[in-house]
């Protein structure tokens, strides 16, 4: 099974800050990686797919990078509505696996 | 617009059974693989099972293999998760999610979830 390790597990930041979340796969997954945003009591929402492609309707302040085993999600200028949890997921092979999540909180 | 609506959750005793449904609309049902993902209270996301667009391939997590079965009814555009021998550890919100391709791809649309509580 491919293990997905996300870091940090939580962070505190201010509106306007640049935030970067890291996701590492235990083996190479090419670019088969997605990022999801989840707000409390809500379903996950797709942000990024194929490691760096922005899902339709997602603001351009979100960007993804990486391939192989190391990936990042960057929010260039944090907005109030961005305070949420973020998860990476590999879809290179079954079982599909998620990172443990990163909670972005207001400083 | 794609819409996924889960139903069938509720309170069930340990050892009991439950069938979840996910009604899909706004898409050509057989063109997309579908997945069940669950989230235990206060925890992260866990993949449960996936099925191909035509229903010919299914995959289940080891934690549910032999107890849960994913299926789809093309005539009803509905995804199912038959759950048996339920355990306390199965307590979670269960989401259905659409994949971007017939057999694979990321999950681009999610339902709102249905809560399953396993307790005596």
- Secondary structural class of chain B: mainly beta
Please indicate the percent range of residues of chain A in DSSP E strands (runs of 2 or more): over 45%
Beta fraction of the residues of chain B?
over 45%
Most extensive chain-chain interface: A-B, 22 and 24 residues
- Assembly type of the shown chains? heterodimer
Specify the helix fraction band of chain B. Answer: under 10%
pLDDT < 50 stretches of chain B: none
Order of helices and strands of chain A: EEEEEEEEEEE
Structural class determined from secondary elements of chain A: mainly beta
Helical amount of chain A:
under 10%
Give the overall average pLDDT of chain B: 97
C-alpha end-to-end distance of chain A: 36 Å
Radius of gyration of chain B from the CA trace?
13 Å
Describe this structure in words.
The complex is a heterodimer of chains A (107) and B (120). With 107 residues, chain A is an all-beta fold. Chain A has no helices and 11 strands. In chain A, the strands form 2 sheets. In chain A, strands 2, 4, 5, 6, 9, 10 and 11 form a 7-stranded mixed sheet that branches. In chain A, a hairpin with a 3-residue loop joins β5 and β6. The radius of gyration of chain A is 13 Å and the shape is globular. The mean pLDDT of chain A is 97. Chain B starts with a strand and ends with a strand. Chain B is globular and about 40 Å long. Chain B is built from no helices and 11 strands. In chain B, a hairpin with a 7-residue loop joins β9 and β10. In chain B, the strands form 2 sheets. In chain B, strands 2, 4, 5, 6, 9, 10 and 11 form a 7-stranded mixed sheet that branches. Chain B is 0% helix and 51% strand. The chains are: A mainly beta (107), B mainly beta (120). Chains A and B meet through β4, β5 and β10 of A and β5, β9 and β10 of B.
